[in-house]
Amino acid sequence: MTSTPKPAHIAMFSIAAAGHVNPSIEVIRELVARGHRVSYAIPASYADKVAETGATPVIWNSTLPTEEDPEAWGTELIDNIEPFLADAVQALPQLAAAFEGDEPDLVLHDITAYPAIVLAHRWKVPAVSLSPNLVAWTGYEEEVAAPMTAALRACERGRAYYARFRAWLDENGIDEDSDRFVGRPRRGVVLIPRALQPHADRVDETVYTFVGACQGDRSATQGTWTPPEAAAGKKVLLVSLGSTFTNQPAFYRACAQAFGDLPDWHVVLQIGKFTDEAEIGAIPANVEVHRWVPQLDILRRADAFITHAGAGGSQEGLATGTPMVAVPQAVDQFGNADMLAALGVARHVPMDEADAATLREAVLALVADPEVAARAQAVRAQMAAEGGTRQAADLIEAELPGPAAPAVSAVSAGLSVDGPIVRA
């Protein structure tokens, strides 16, 4: 028997996006296993994934662009941030009504879940940010944010955005500046390894704690990968651009061409849901093509990884010690690619340079370099020491209000946990 905080009601808030749900899903599972009741506010498209953890999905309707239409996010900064505010304004009444009479003891929230912060303020309970990517360091506002916000505040659309944000915060009794409201949580558990964080030595450790990759057994939901007999004795390369910006038939053709004639390599090519396999052309015998693969399971066996350098894929590559060729597509992926290259475990190849010859040379050079392998193993060991899922759950429990009381997790005690109930 171990001493843990008294079982509590914890509410998690996120948006319907793989890069925001997946990083924390094992943390939620662990909190449920420890006996806490977790209500997870999420749009319906991710309700089943949430329910698999034992948490209770609390469904709300979102106006954000979906993963089916990534182009709807636009191309300018204002295009990217306006939808989050508009969604927050319309979501807040839904979420307040859903939790009325069943307010939680603690709020967990993704970095995009603005209503969660307002509700924690309203309910007078602690809020903890679960960040799936980099966080602000000391000096971030002056070095990075100020130039961007200055341009926004100088244009009519940007001024309207800030005015609407200010009015919404005022309406909800929050005096904080909107930029700090979004980017400076009271407490943050960072679900990436410290190695991926720019200026990690300037991050406030009284606010943020890096726990690294929070990974568990995904075989029940994602399946496993079994190498074909023809792959016996060959090196394995995984190629994946994630789940969103995957309409890239020319890139997939380049990957097939780059490794299709190498007899000692086997390639697993994930193409997502937007590319027609016929657009790739003839598929070499040593290349298998799938719309979706159990990525982590393959990476545990892979010798190299061509990735878009999303936060999830980047840390999975680091956690398995897999050399990477980073071909970023959008948002934070460019910075992640540079961080991976700076660690000495990856090569950053811009998309417009990712032809067959460049990709092949990059992969073969990385795999042949013993220093790359040594650095990859060193980063892997550092990540393991950060604690992952259990450390994240410990930090969250430490934020629960009230005195700690002896308890045991429902799993270790052999108790049953109520099944998930979807609330409208």
Backbone CA Rg: 22 Å
Largest sheet: 7 strands, parallel
H and E order: EHHEHEHEHEHHHEEHEHEEHEHEHEHHH
**Helix proportion of residues, in percent?**
25-40%
Query: Which percent band covers the strand fraction?
Result: 5-15%
Task: Tell me the structural class.
Answer: alpha/beta
How many H/I helical runs?
A: 16
Termini separation: 37 Å
Q: In which order are the strands of the major sheet placed?
A: 3-2-1-4-5-6-7
Number of E-state strands? 13
Q: State the assembly state of the protein chains.
A: single chain
Mean pLDDT across residues: 89
Shape: globular
Ranges with pLDDT <50 over ≥5 residues? 404-424
Structure description:
Helix 4 (77-99) runs parallel beside helix 5. The chain is of the alpha/beta class. The chain has a seven-stranded parallel β-sheet, sandwiched between helices. Strands 10-9-8-11-12-13 form a six-stranded parallel β-sheet, sandwiched between helices. It contains 16 helices and 13 strands.
